[in-house]
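Ligand-bound model needed. GMT.
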Amino acid sequence: MKIGIVCYPTFGGSGVVATELGIGLAGLGHEVHFITYKRPVRLTSFYHNIFFHEVTSLEYPLFEYAPYESSLASKLVDVIRFEKLDILHVHYAIPHASVAYMAKQILKEKGIQIPVITTLHGTDITLVGADKSFSPVVEFSINQSDGVTAVSEHLKEETLQNFDIVKEIKVIPNFIDFTRFRKTNKDHFRKALAPEGEKILIHISNFRKVKRVEDVVRVFQIVHQKIPSKLLLIGDGPERSHLEELCRELNLCDEVRFLGKQEAVDELLAISDLFLLTSENESFGLAALEAMACEVPVISTNAGGIPEVNIHGQTGYLCNVGDIESMSAYCIELLSNENTLETFRKNAYQNALKYDIKTLLPEYVRFYEHIIDKVIKS
Ligand code: GMT
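Prediction:
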C-alpha cells in the first residue's frame, strides 16, 4: 500500500505513535509518506520507502496567523494525486481531520477517491476538542472520516459522550517496539546520575498543566525523606520554570535533575526504578507503557485510560488524581522491598508485551484494507 500519514512532528505522544507506525509499516514493505510541517523527531534514520513532505505556510503581511490548514490541504492534494496514495491516515483530530476532509472533497472534484482514517489521541477530544471553539468541526470531521480509531476504550467512551458520533470507533491501543524499549545494562550511566546507589524515580512528559508534574516533585519530596533517591525529569514545556522554582523552595536541587527533551528515553528508563505519572487526564499514557517495556513499574493516577495500561497491585499502583500521600506511600513500599519490586518489574514487562508492535501493526493494516475496500465499493 501507499500510505499518507499526517501528524504533529513533535515529541508528543500522538506524533511518536504516528511516526513509529509509519516506520513499522515501511518495515512491512509499504510505502509511507509523512506530510507535516517538520521532519518527525522520531524519524531519525533513512528508509528507502519513507518519504517526508514538508508543509510550508505562506507568510504575508495580512496574515496575523499563517493559514496552516490551507497549506496542509493543498499539500495533501498534491501528494495524494502525484504519489497515487491508497489511503490517508491522520493523527490527532485538530486540525488534521477537517483538513483531510477538505483535501478529500477537492480530490473528488478531480475524480480521485482517497479513503481517510482519523486516529483520536486524547486532548483532541478531552481538553481541546470538547471546547466550543472547536467541537462542531471536530464532530463533523470525525463523522466524515471513512474510518475512526481511538487509542483506548476510555477515549472511545469519552468521544461518544462528548460528541454526536455516527461512525463506529475502533479501538487500536498504542504499541511499543521491543527492539528499542527493553531493559539494557546501563550501569555506568546509573552511576553517573546516582553515584551513591540511590534509587531512581523518573517522569517523562511535555510539562503541561494536565500532567500535574508538581505532584511528581511533591511525591518525590516525601519519598526522598525515607529512601535515598534521585528524580529525573525528562521533557520540557510550560510548567518547567515553575517546577525549577519549586525544587529550589523545597531544597531539592541536588536530588532532582531536569534533563530536558531527550531522544534516548529508553536509556534513561533502563536505569530507573519507578516511573511516576500524575496526570489529571490521559487517554492512554504511552510514556508509562515505554517504562513498563523497560521493566519499570508505574505509580500513576487512575485518570482516563491509564488503568487499561497500568494494573493496580501488579505492574504498579493507581491513585486518585492529586493523592500525593498514597502515591508516595506506594513508592516507599515498592522501593523498600527488593523482592516485591522485582516481581512488579517482571509484571510490568509481561503486561507491556500485550502492546507489542508486532501484534498491533497487523491490526492497522487489516483496518486500512477494510476501509479501502469499503470506500472503493461505495
Ligand atoms: O500527552 C500529551 O499532552 C500529548 C498527547 C498528544 O496528542 O501528543 O498525548 C496523547 O496521545 C498519546 C498517544 O496516543 C497518549 O498516550 C496520551 O495519553 C495522550 N495525552 C492525553 O490524553 C493527555
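The longest helix spans residues 357-377.
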